[in-house]
Write a structure and sequence with these properties.
This protein is of the alpha+beta class. The chain is 56% helix and 7% strand. The protein has a 4-stranded mixed β-sheet. A hairpin with a 5-residue loop joins β3 and β4. The chain is globular and about 40 Å long. It starts with a strand and ends with a helix.
């Protein structure tokens, strides 16, 4: 059975959501980053980690999402297709322009040693994040239900998780187009199942 390692109040939420969408059996260990148990399976101490059925540790939330969706042939455009190239472009945009801003803000809030933090950088990060949201809104403004086609794919999971993270970090939520998109995806049963577990 697959085993997901990492607290759901982190990027571990992403593979947990996809695992629920796929209906795959898995176990979950709610462990913080850099704990001894995490270091045992990932030398960097970072989460999430997904242990395959053979016990192979997979790291990085996007890599795990891609592996799961490709393996199961669901929630991703076919590898090698132009649709997949467009999907991957959206994924990298989200990682570069939304996720990276949020992670850098977190590093300068509580991750780095206090003497290494630059709190003033967060104003610039909020500006960059807002510009990323404007681009995201343009992608969605043609009325599409999902970012890369007619069904949920990897970038949708990343986008909604970034929206959750941004809310917790006090970043802007975006316009009505983004709000409607986020709200609709948060109603999915698989998302709600993980959210309930995280809250509990």
């Amino acid at each position: 059975m697959l085993e997901l390692i990492g607290t759901l109040k982190s990027r571990s939420f992403r593979p947990a959501w996809l695992l629920e969408e796929l209906g795959l059996p898995y176990t979950h260990r709610d462990l913080p980053p850099r704990s001894e148990a995490v270091h045992a399976v990932n030398p960097s101490g970072k989460i999430p980690v997904l242990l395959t059925e053979e016990g192979t540790p997979l790291t990085d939330s996007t890599a795990i999402l891609t592996w799961l969706s490709d393996r199961e042939g669901r929630f991703s455009c076919p590898p090698g297709s132009t649709a997949r190239a467009r999907q991957d472009a959206i994924t990298h945009f989200l990682l570069d322009e939304l996720d990276a801003c949020l992670w850098t803000a977190a590093r300068h809030s509580f991750v780095l040693p206090e003497e290494r933090r630059l709190p003033a950088i967060k104003d610039s990060l909020r500006w960059e994040y807002d510009r990323g949201l404007e681009r995201l809104s343009r992608i969605l403004s043609d009325g599409r239900a999902f970012l890369a086609g007619d069904t949920l794919t990897v970038p949708d999971i990343i986008a909604v998780h970034c929206g959750n993270w941004a809310h917790a970090a006090g970043f802007a939520p975006g316009d009505d187009v983004i709000a409607a998109y986020m709200s609709r995806l948060r109603q999915r049963p698989a998302y709600r199942a993980v959210a309930v577990r995280m809250a509990g």
